[in-house]
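pipeline/complex-builder :: batch 7 item 3
reading input block
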Amino acid sequence: MRRGIAATGLIAALAMTAAACGGDDEGSGGSKGGKLSGTVTFWDTSNDAEKGAYQKIAKGFEKLHPDVKVNYVNVPFGEANAKFKNAAGGNSGAPDVMRTEVAWTQDFASLGYLAPLDDTVALDKADDYLPQAAASTKFKGKTYAAPQTIDTLALFYNKKMLKAAGVEVPTSFDEVKSAAKKIKSKSGKTGLYLRGDDPYYYLPYLYGEGGDLLDTKAKKVTVDEPEGAKAFSVMKDLVDSKAAVTDASDGYNNQLNAFKDGDVAMALDGPWSIEGALQGKQFKSDKDNLGVAPAPAGSKRQGAPQGGWNLAAYAGSGNLDAAYEFIKYMSSAKVQQQTTEELSLLPTRTSVYDVKSVKDNQMVQFFKPAVAKSVQRPWIPEANALFEPIRLQLEKVLSGKSSPEKGAEGIGDAYRKLLKDYK
Amino acid sequence: MAVETGQSVVKAADVQSIRGRGHRPGKKPGRLRRTLTTHWYAWAMVAPVVTVIGVIVGYPLVRGLYLSTTNANEANVERHIGVNDIPATYESVGLDNYQAILSDGVFWDRLSWTVVWTVSCVALSFTLGLALATMLNRKLAGRSFYRMALILPWAVPAFVSVFTWRLLFNEKKGLLNKILEGGGIDAIPWLNDPTWAKISVITVNVWLGVPFMLVAMLGGLQSIPGELYEAAEMDGANAWQRFRHITLPGLRTVASTVILISGIWTFNMFPVIFLLTRGGPGDATEILVTYAYRLSFVVSPRDFAGSAAWGVLILALLSIIAVAYRRALRKQGEVW
């Protein structure tokens, strides 16, 4: 019965939005019956360097739909997940549209917090999405989000510093280590900043050794196989040999500051930091000094995790029609082109890559093939919960309290506790 | 005032009950009824407070106790989100949660660090507070200035202090390491090494806790009659003897209370740990309450039942400590 009501409501909503937006795609929202109105609250998670551009873009929706007010709220990445869950679970204060990290989408969807977007206006030209990006929006056969941007980790390097030390851009962690030695002897600076506080940065090392967190097909935990331990020992070796510096807290800011101030020559980072890095004293007047290369390979292969952001509608939103329309706008080719031009973020639409300004963007030129090769993470509701055990063990291993083998074992044990039907 | 009112009510009630029950002699009113009729006025007076406390303390407490015996988590509690109506599907699991917690090393690790953290914070802030109070209890130039300055940490909102300390502690850009660098000493990984992180959180908490101790001790010191010191001086007692045999016993009632209070506060001192290190590096500085928070707000799906069970255990621990502490004091002749 409830389902019946929901379906009727959905059809009614569809009919209304179809009426409002039929015809001209860039239409001003229409002036006759069924036009969109009210407020759309949008929680954005972009960082300090990016948020100005995003706010401007979000507000651009008001020009298309003059009766809709966009309430733009920037929620720091670190708090966004918990904040959304508090609001959504407690049924008060949740936004209409939320920018969710790719690994949050299934989590939120499995808890019933998100509205399915299949057959709504939100999923406009869905064939245009990169298959990899689209994969992160699905849960149990339904689509719960529209991909907004896709990314992966890469090696950011300071061209001048590498040149001064007479080293080539490293393609493996072994080369990072030897390059760091030369950099240290030439300038006294450290080679690499290694994020010791964020489990996400364990993944390139793990994939590099040919390992993975889980085998979702065979329902098997694979992180505690020898590759997982090897990944830890590579990280620890970089820190112990002074090729890398690390922190157990405040890593994001420390890394960005160390890199843009020239205290370290290299860092593993993603496109979200391009804008911030370019504002630093090493790159501000000399943007070409910033080099980006594929994440270094481990002993088996090169592999960086696929990341990115999706746009999802809160199931309890009082203004779902406007929310769908807003998602459609924010993931449209035009807006994606704009975010690429202003922030060097990667589009999720294949068509946008054909636009000249996007094609010519240096960062896109680099990141596009990197993203194409990036490793997909397990798209399961627990995907986000997989990080906490890594964080705990990462600290133990890097501080020498635990061996790499013990560390990998610890993660595996935690995963088996978390994922009941995995062996 | 209150006593007088009570008595008059007692008299009135007695008269009434005698009149009212005139035709059934021999049968005395029930005990409950008697207390109710005798003290109805007092009950009426406290009723609003009892109701409010029942709603804001009692209900969550009972609810927490109940949740801790179930397997409730974010995925199986009842939710109404727009068109999605999700019914509750959690069920009772008896004492399984407690059994799981108590048989897991995590609890005992966290408990032992929480005890170390509480004892060292309270001991240090008490000692410092007492020392400063003793110094400030003398007549010295600018005394009120010093008193104001020492209260300052208490006047600043805790999160502001903690964030300021976090900036000071930053390993690469922080002021503390810059100072050490100037002195030719290697940078200390304040918040990045488990041991240093523990020292750091204790330092910050002591810094925040000293003003409270200082004020309480100062009050205690001023209540000790000056004649005692004069008499002791006449008897030839030196400064240490005076401190040992007059000041300390004179402060005992105040001291025992503030130690208990600050022990409970520190045991549950969420903001300092959470804002300074988030329980890190790893889980080195995680105390029981920050772990309970982690269970119900950080892990996914949020483990409400587990978190509730941790909460109940924390409450039980604190109750036991408080009762034992009172007993110990009573044995020493304190009335508390």
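note: The domain at 116-251+264-278 of chain B is CATH 1.10.3720.10 (MetI-like fold).
queue -> next item
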